[in-house]
């Protein structure tokens, strides 16, 4: 059992805002690393207090190479200075859609190789939020406890708060349909799936959709929105199948490039999602809920925090 006074809660720079919310949920202070940049671009990190014998919690997204490296440095530094345990929560895992390579392609499956880099720094525990694929959970030799934190309960609460009368959940492809079915089970509402085929890195074709959306509001659900290509095609299929309105929902709101404008141009007025991706907050288009309570409950359960 871990006592609260023995915990040091840290974050990499991109995850600092979410980590502050988790700290508030846990009634713990968020410890800020001492960070500087040398003239040649190298980054200096130092712990502002002694971590020896302490239980370190690190909340870190890995949405780009710098964020990933900072997480690796924080874990390795905690080990170097003899932390009692190192416990990591990754709200958003970069390269998570690249968990396998096509045969004879020469591709590097960075979803796996990057996650292995995290595991090789020897954390005791790593939790991921709404992974694209659970394959990354097994990219270690069995000595690390891993956990997949699902956000369905928070997503269901968010949908209930919208006060919609007749709605159906839609998966943009069959691969995600089991996740959508679980969410539909919580909400006791119908669900359906479109048929999506990927033919290039960021290019897909979305085929027909069932008539289950006819006369209803369709809520298209996915784990992330990157460029929005397949989502926008699914929007078209929903309207073609008779939906009266379409909302879009995803956990990780990457929204790369001109994705926001593309949704606006298509008449989408609300994109619902979590605060797992850095810099995403509610505005005229985004309706963002926080996963901080879910992460806090997960950490309390794992660490069995004493008062």
General description of the model:
This protein has two domains: 4-150 and 293-303, Rossmann fold, CATH 3.40.50.2020; 152-289, 3-Layer(aba) Sandwich (Rossmann fold), CATH 3.40.50.2020. Helix content is 29%, strand content 25%. It is built from eight helices and 15 strands. β10 (196-200) and β11 (203-206) form a beta hairpin.
Brief descriptors of the model:
alpha/beta, 307 residues, 6-stranded parallel sheet, Rossmann fold
Would you identify the regions where 5 or more consecutive residues have pLDDT less than 50? Answer: 198-206
Query: What count of domains describes the coordinates?
Result: 2
Order of helices and strands: EHEEEHEHEEHEHEEEEHEHEEH
CATH class of the largest domain: Alpha Beta
Distance between the termini: 11 Å
Q: Over the alpha carbons, how many angstroms does the gyration radius reach?
A: 20 Å
Looking at the structure, what is the overall shape? Answer: globular
Task: Chart the SSEs and their pairings.
Blueprint: E1 7-11, H1 16-26, E2 34-37, E3 43-46, E4 55-59, H2 65-80, E5 85-90, H3 110-119, E6 125-129, E7 145-149, H4 152-161, E8 167-171, H5 177-187, E9 191-193, E10 196-200, E11 203-206, E12 217-225, H6 229-240, E13 245-253, H7 259-265, E14 271-274, E15 286-289, H8 292-303
Parallel strand pairs: 1-4, 4-5, 5-6, 6-7, 8-9, 8-12, 12-13, 13-14, 14-15
Antiparallel strand pairs: 2-3, 10-11
Helix pairs in contact: 1-8, 4-5
